[in-house]
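The freezer alarm interrupted the setup, so I double-checked each line after restarting. Inputs confirmed:
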Amino acid sequence: MLALQLLVNGIVTGSALGVVAVSFALIYATTRVFHVAHAGVYTLGGYLAWSLMRHGVPAIAALLVAMAGCVVLGSLIQILLYARLERRGAAQLVVLIASLGALAVIQNLIAAIYSPDILNFSAAWAGQVVALPGGLRLTGAQIATVVLDFAAFGATLVFAHRTLLGKRIRAVASNPFLAEITRLEPRRVHVYVMAIASALVCLPGVLGPLDYGLQPYGGVTPLLTATIAMIAGGIGSLAGAFGLAVAIVVLQNLALLVMPGEWSIGVTFAIFVVFMLFRPRGLFAGK
Amino acid sequence: MILELEGLAAGYGAKTVISDLSFAVAEGEILALLGHNGAGKTTTLKTAMGLIAPRAGLVRFAGVPLARVPVAERVARGLRLLPEGRGIFPDLTVAENIDVVAARLAAGGAMFTPEALYRLLPVLAERRTTRAGSMSGGQQQMLAFALAILGTPRCLLLDEPSIGLAPNLVERLFAQVRDVCRAHGVAVVLVEQNVAAALALADRVAIMNSGKLVFDGTPEAARASNLWEHF
Ligand SMILES: Nc1ncnc2c1ncn2[C@@H]1O[C@H](COP(=O)(O)OP(=O)(O)OP(=O)(O)O)[C@@H](O)[C@H]1O
Ligand SMILES: [Mg+2]
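Predicted 3D structure, all chains:
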């Protein structure tokens, strides 16, 4: 059953991109920064985990350390770059260009330190194929991806709606001016959000490359899909961003039944254009 | 005097909007701050809050100059603003609105705890799980007022709290303002378009015209003077 296998592969990869989309959407909704350098944070996570696992660190420990590294990088970008620009009243476009600059620096540093070529993980369990009922075959990396990414999405929703910090973050996103005069300290919350979103994006940043290998510039395509999912899902809706990411990747995969793989980016953009024409505010737009 | 503005000047970019502005409010006093559209009332309140840096003059709160005190610290000391327009977090439920602010401003021994607010404004208790942005304008304004007094306010800056409210709701809201002020000694600076309602509530009236103070006196004196000349 090729179609079923493609559907399941789509859900697996889609859940990974869903977490990228949720983390990006969290940042955009709260800070209003179009944080392109998030692709660099995603990439760094994979390389950190690769280095550690190559030296025999167990996968879970490597993932956790990589997450810590991503948290540091994301928070520094917020504190040293975005917060300073905001204090100077920089326009959104200026901040976007600064973010693109940060992305280029991260990518080039990774290429210089590691290699511009594809690096592969050598974890045996990741490549091991598990046969499931219905003739489905999934690798260890795919199973870890779908389980952990869905868990991360669920945890993010619970965090946003059930914890005090989650509510405070949503409050800052909902009305930044009021947040300022009710002592929610929006600038501090922006740093928290960058830290949390950077930890989140590290998960797919490590799990994805377990399957496909690492590339210094490998974060850009996932981020593009995630951005489209966020806009199509309705800015501000985390569930919308995740759901649309899964849907887009499933469609990309099913499209393989009828057209060659190079067209999958085309499918993504086609979905984007359809949304912009018929549902420009997104599927789950709040206001 | 809990809040004193002395020779205050402020503006945006090259434009000076208020200049040489001085007035003060005492504990438990309601000051109506009136003036035509664009007179600079909102700018005055924002400057007092520290949201706009003054170009001259100073703001004193409980006798202490605030020049170097950041917004969050002014709020913590009890200087509170109900902003013009939406003073709520529309995407959160009513209870979430109150909880996030209470966690930052009403931790331990506050004048207005969430429970006290639900008792004071029962409509909010009924709407706890409603998304704040989907409530009626009047209910949203009640929530905005609740968020402004949550914790231990000492001086409330209310920027057109009655906007969009039906007359009976304005009466209810102003009765609450009066109670909060009288029972707890909270000072109020009330900016209003509804001049009649503001004069009925206020102890004292200040009138601004083009960024300057043109009248400061009792409501009776304001009514006796040619009030509308100032607008
Ligand atoms: N952010 C801003 N940037 C530039 N000019 C502004 C800004 N906000 C207000 N102004 C200008 O400053 C002047 C005073 O505005 P302000 O909002 O303080 O008046 P107001 O008395 O509150 O008026 P209203 O009754 O309409 O609320 C107006 O001329 C207005 O156009
Ligand atoms: Mg105003």
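Quick read of the result. Chain B touches chain A through 26 residues (CB under 8 Å).
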